[in-house]
Design goal:
Blueprint: E1 4-16, E2 28-40, E3 44-48, H1 55-62, E4 70-75, E5 78-79, H2 80-85, H3 88-92, E6 95-98, H4 102-105, H5 112-122, H6 128-141, H7 158-171, E7 176-180, H8 188-205, E8 208-213, H9 216-222, E9 225-230, E10 233-239, H10 240-245, H11 250-257, H12 260-264
Parallel strand pairs: 3-8, 3-9, 6-7, 7-8
Antiparallel strand pairs: 1-2, 1-4, 4-5, 9-10
This protein binds adenosine-5'-triphosphate (ATP).
């Protein structure tokens, strides 16, 4: 078995280009430029960079929400195209995505029970009694009470909703989780609790995390390695401690310097 949970090679994504319906030339944006990156099994790898650097586009390609222009991805040791052809079940059981806005990511018309039931039924194939048992286990894992099940997303705070979204991602029993700014919509105190929960879940369930963030304080708290993206390229990749203590690339130095809470507290 490969040691990489995710292996990305020369991945590129361009938006626009070509001509519009009326023949006007469309501006091409290269959001991700020939990125190669490995997420090792059991690690938390951060992808950091300012707004527009291509972090979300990279994450969205990994989970099949964007199609790469070129390059390749192995996810859980399998080519992403092969995995996708095997169907949503195979894909969803390999990699899961947690969005930035937890409330928006949960269907407002469904109870939490119904939200958690979908992956348990469609991805794991559990029968009703086992599904009910798993729902309780999942809520317990994210420290939410059983009474959560009969309620609707809008009844929860941002932090609680993110715990539910994490429970939904865990329901698929995928070993690779991609988080796109999972705590940036939350208050700082709540952020710390959710980050602690994520660390705990990773060890407990043997997970691998790809963690997209623009917040270096968050990244330093949770990540093993950090990849720095700048205009669609990875300009530096290093263990978190090394990167924060001794950033090599000029852009990384600027990023670290502009996050004084980390350096000077
Ligand atoms: N669907 C799209 N169509 C056209 N351009 C896009 C699309 N999605 C992203 N882009 C462009 O690609 C570039 C990278 O965007 P992306 O959202 O990946 O960056 P980011 O680092 O995640 O930023 P943010 O933190 O603000 O989400 C930006 O210039 C953006 O405008």
């Amino acid at each position: 078995m490969t040691k990489s949970a995710i292996q990305i090679r020369e991945l590129t994504k361009s938006f626009g280009g070509g001509r519009s319906l009326f023949g006007k030339e469309r501006h091409e944006v290269k959001a991700v430029k020939s990125v190669s990156l490995d997420l090792m099994r059991g690690e938390t790898l951060a992808v950091v960079g300012e707004s527009g650097s291509g972090k979300s586009t990279l994450a969205r390609m990994l989970v099949g929400l964007e199609t790469p222009t070129s390059g390749s991805m192995l996810i859980g040791g399998k080519d992403a195209d092969v995995l996708r052809r095997e169907g949503p079940q195979a894909f969803g059981k390999t990699i899961q995505y947690v969005f930035q806005d937890p409330v928006a990511s949960l269907n407002p018309r469904k109870t939490i029970s119904s939200i958690l039931e979908t992956p348990l039924k469609l991805l794991c194939g559990y029968e009703a009694p086992r599904r009910r048992e798993r729902m309780k286990e999942l809520l317990d894992a994210v420290q939410m009470p059983e009474s959560t099940l009969s309620r609707y997303p809008h009844e929860f705070s941002g932090g609680q909703a993110q715990r539910i979204a994490i429970a939904r991602a865990l329901a698929a029993e995928a070993e690779i989780l991609v988080f796109d700014e999972p705590v940036s919509a939350l208050d700082v105190g709540v952020q710390a609790q959710v980050l602690l929960l994520l660390s705990d879940l990773k060890t407990r369930f043997d997970l691998s995390y790809l963690f997209i963030s623009h917040d270096l304080a968050v990244v330093e708290a949770i990540c093993d390695r950090v990849a720095v993206m700048y205009f669609g390229e990875i300009v530096e990749l290093a263990p978190a401690a090394r990167l924060f203590a001794d950033p090599e690339h000029a852009y990384t130095r600027r990023l670290v310097a502009s996050a004084p809470r980390i350096r000077r507290e």
